[in-house]
């Protein structure tokens, strides 16, 4: 099975958020969401500004066309506003593996139920619809908030890729790799659903 036939564009919805396939006309709303907290100023994130958003969206859509990614915008159901973005990426249909990445949220929606619901939707889609054997997460060594959030999902740290990628300033980043594998998913799912019930009560 080719990756392009394996990854089928879809919409995912929960109580708080909807994950809608990314489109070019979402660019302005993404910049507006990233302006909440000036996220593009955080050197360890990938949030775009008005000068970089076209390339940001273009790359995501090219990865989708190549069968390697499913990029989404995150829409808050109460306001119907885009509050961030996330992506299934680095898809490997032969080995039944994907990564969840390129995730960021407007500052006012960080440390809320938004991230937990997004991850519950994406993990459920990956394990239950795509039948993957592993979902990977990667983050910058210095992005401690992201590392903590990934660990709280129930992902286990696989290791650190040192001098993994070059930053815009020419320095190299260390990348922390986490994963959840298929036999862990039922327990991770229960944990996420428990956390969401606690948030809503």
TrEMBL record:
Pfam families on file: Acetyltransf_3
Molecular function in Gene Ontology: acyltransferase activity, transferring groups other than amino-acyl groups
Domain N-acetyltransferase: 19-156
Record InterPro entries: Acyl_CoA_acyltransferase, GNAT_dom
Residues spanning the signal sequence: none
PANTHER family found in the cross-reference section: BLL6696 PROTEIN, N-ACETYLTRANSFERASE DOMAIN-CONTAINING PROTEIN
Protein name as it appears in the record: N-acetyltransferase
Highest taxon above the source species: Bacteria
């Amino acid at each position: 099975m080719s990756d392009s036939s394996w990854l089928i564009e879809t919409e995912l919805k929960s109580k708080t958020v909807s994950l809608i396939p990314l489109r070019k006309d979402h660019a302005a709303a993404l910049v507006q969401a990233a302006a909440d907290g000036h996220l593009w100023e955080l050197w360890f994130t990938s949030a775009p500004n008005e000068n970089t958003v076209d390339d940001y969206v273009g790359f995501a859509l090219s990865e989708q066309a190549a069968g390697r990614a499913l990029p989404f915008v995150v829409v808050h159901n109460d306001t119907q506003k885009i509050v961030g973005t996330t992506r299934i990426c680095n898809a490997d249909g032969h080995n039944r593996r994907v990564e969840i990445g390129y995730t960021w949220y407007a500052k006012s929606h960080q440390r809320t139920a938004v991230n937990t619901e997004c991850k519950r939707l994406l993990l459920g889609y990956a394990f239950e619809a795509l039948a993957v054997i592993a979902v990977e997460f990667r983050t910058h060594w210095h992005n401690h908030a992201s590392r903590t959030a990934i660990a709280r999902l129930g992902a286990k740290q696989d290791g650190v890729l040192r001098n993994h990628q070059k930053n815009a300033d020419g320095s190299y980043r260390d990348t922390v790799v986490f994963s959840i594998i298929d036999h862990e998913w039922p327990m991770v799912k229960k944990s996420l659903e428990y956390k969401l019930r606690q948030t809503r009560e």
